[in-house]
Amino acid sequence: MSKSKNNASGELKRLQEEIARYKKKLEDNKWASKKTNEGIRALYKDLEKMHETLQESEERFKDIVDNTTDWIWEVDKDMKYTFASGKVNEILGCESKELIGKTLFDLMPESEAERIGEIFKKNASEKKPIVDLENWNLTKEGKRICLLTNGIPLLSKSGELMGYRGVDKDITDCKKADESLKKSEEKFRLIAENSIDCIWKLDTKLRFTYLSPSVERIMGFKPEQWVGTKISSHFKKREFLKVGVLAAKAIANYKTFTHVTFETKMLNSKNEEVDVEISSKVLLDSQGKLIGLQGITRDITERKQAEENLRNSERKLSQIVNGNSIPALVIDNDHVITNWNNALEQLSGLSTIDMVGTKDQWKAFYPKEQRCILADLIVDNASSEEIDARYHGKYRKSPLVKEAYEAEDFFLGLGDNGKWLNFSAIPLKDTNGSIIGAIETLQDITERKNAEDKLKGAFQEIKMHEKKLEMVNEHLDSFSYSVSHDLRAPLRAINGFSQILLDTYGDKVDDEMRHYLDRISEGAQKMGRLIDDLLSFSRSTRGEMKYEQMDVEKIVNDLVKAHRDIELDRDIEFVVNPLGTVEADKVMLKVVFANLLQNAIKFTIGREKTCIEIGGEQKEDHIQFYVKDNGIGFDMKYKDKLFEAFQQLQTDEKFMGSGIGLATVERIVSKHGGNVWAEGEVDKGSTFYFTLPSKTHIEE
Amino acid sequence: MNEKEIEILLVEDNRDDEELAKIALKNNNITNKIQVVRDGVEALEYLFGSVDSETLKCVGPTVVLLDLKLPKIDGLGVLRRIKTNPLSKKIPVVVLTSSSEEKDLVESYRLGANSYICKPVDFNQFTEVVRQIGSYWLFLNKQPS
What we know:
The complex is a heterodimer.
Chain A: H1 2-28, H2 30-35, H3 37-67, E1 71-76, E2 81-84, H4 88-92, H5 96-99, H6 110-125, E3 130-138, E4 144-155, E5 161-170, H7 172-194, E6 198-203, E7 208-211, H8 214-219, H9 223-226, H10 237-252, E8 259-267, E9 273-284, E10 290-299, H11 301-322, E11 328-332, E12 337-340, H12 342-348, H13 352-355, H14 361-365, H15 374-379, H16 384-391, E13 395-397, E14 405-411, E15 419-429, E16 435-444, H17 446-504, H18 511-541, E17 547-551, H19 552-566, E18 572-576, E19 581-585, H20 586-602, E20 610-618, E21 622-629, H21 661-671, E22 676-680, E23 686-693
Parallel strand pairs in A: 18-20
Antiparallel strand pairs in A: 1-2, 1-5, 3-4, 4-5, 6-7, 6-10, 8-9, 9-10, 11-12, 11-16, 13-14, 14-15, 15-16, 17-19, 20-21, 21-23, 22-23
Chain B: E1 8-11, H1 15-27, E2 34-37, H2 40-48, E3 63-66, H3 75-84, E4 93-97, H4 102-111, E5 115-118, H5 123-140
Parallel strand pairs in B: 1-2, 1-3, 3-4, 4-5
């Protein structure tokens, strides 16, 4: 704008000079002018023409000044306005008249006025122009306006500063845009610098132009150590091959390229690889021209570690399942088989390769019906009712593992003749407790089942035998009853009538007849005793035992008293030592002591003084009793014969018994779980011992 | 024989035993007061008139000597009938048997037998037993009339 003014004033000058020249010419040619008026008239015409031109030029200048968006000013040496173009009104909201006489700085805030004043003062002293000086002014309404001021010093002919002439441009809008740009840049900087991830920019040659401070945290390098370096130097070759291809693609196709995210490894300050995830997009300027790439690099070491841990634990599970000798399978939450171990391969005849990755688990167990197996129900978090519907009466909740079920069933399709399986399924859960699959283990229990069946069969057989035995015992009972009843009656008749014969016809019976009748009667009596002993022996070996606590001394004393009452004609000394209490069948124990006492009494017949001693002794886990006599004793080489039924060691008539007494003792004692034995010497008496367990019952 | 004079009802199926018993009783001078029946049915008919009757046919014997092993209705059956009927339960019943089985002894007393005697094989002992029974139940024992 000043240029056009300069042009205009230059033109003016030139024209003035031209006028002067013409004036001189006029002087010089005064005479000539006199010569011809026409010539003068022509000259005036020219002059008029020139004046018109000048006027036109001034008009043009005015037009320019008035129509420019900037405003033009002139100040004197005190920086007071001497001229202000009309536009000032639009810019500062005041008439140019109002400005005249005010200084340049009157419209500025105080601090700004001071700052700008200094610059003007300095430039004025040096007579320098003011170039692109931004300064803030206040409008009449108090609005902040930023002006870009350019001005040239006005000098007098002598070179003194007369003032400045210049032009101001309103750059408020530009300034504000600039400021908001700065603010958003600041914001970006804050985000970038406070981000955990590293934000970066690359130029088109893949050199870093910016890195946020996090690069130090992730890589151990300061941003400035990387700025200017090529990215290739931060990867191992193998990794860069991948990354470089991606970057080259992005750059080559930058117009259509949106963004890419990938995982890779970058080298840190220790030259170790760090797992990172990179997200990148192309960076374009406002014209859409490629500047480079920008993106974010995130440290994913922990995530990778977690993934690795997960893989390890999956591998562990696989090893546990696959290496197990118990058939097992694992399915994921989509029911897809992930493990099918060798043991199951053998059990089912279906190979791991064929099964893993499929949902064909049903084929192994229900070849004719595509249905779910227990693990499928577990994965579906099936209710007890649903499980019951499939495995009614064959399943139960695991007593060991929460939420696990176990079942037993027969599978016709397995093996040649089908197999019994015991199987249990357990849910597999993630850390949140969501079911991510299930593991099912199966055990072939066919042999156990068969053994159980056999055992059941054997048990039933035993039951049957027991029943038979019971029947035999019942028969034996009624047989014994018959014996005791019916066998004795004829004996009574034999004995009775031979007795009556003797009593009634005693005077007619001679000695020989009497002898025979006595023999008949004695024989009958002997047979009666034999029957009694036989019945007693039979009773001692069958029937239920009724254990009860009893005072042994009382039993023995009762028996001793009974014998004393019977054996009135004999001098017998009974010595009963303390015997304590014992738990046994009372009736049977009575029989034992009765038989042993009878035995002692019988084999002491003929002794001048009979001594029978009864005693007992508590041993570690049993009680040992003895019955000692001073009778005829026996030869120890026959000691084993003593307790056999119907065996007699004595041939002497007076010692003859049924041969059943000691056999009965032996039976009863062994039924109680005890032992019986005897010690003796011919003519020096015998001692019979027997033991009874202290507490434990010996079941029949 | 006048039923009112009957003092002993002997229930015995074995004729030898019956005769031996009679001899033993005769030896003790109580021969004319014995009625012998040979099985349980006869015994009940004698006492109640018929097997199913609940009323006493006679005043009743002073004592019943009852064998256990009898045809038709056995001794324990007869004993039960006598002892469960209020009219007959006061009649003393002495079980006189060959059986020395514990269970017979226990069952007899459970049903209300007044005595349980094993018949000895030896006749002298048998006579002694019969004498004692006779003297106790017929002479010593007092009963409500």
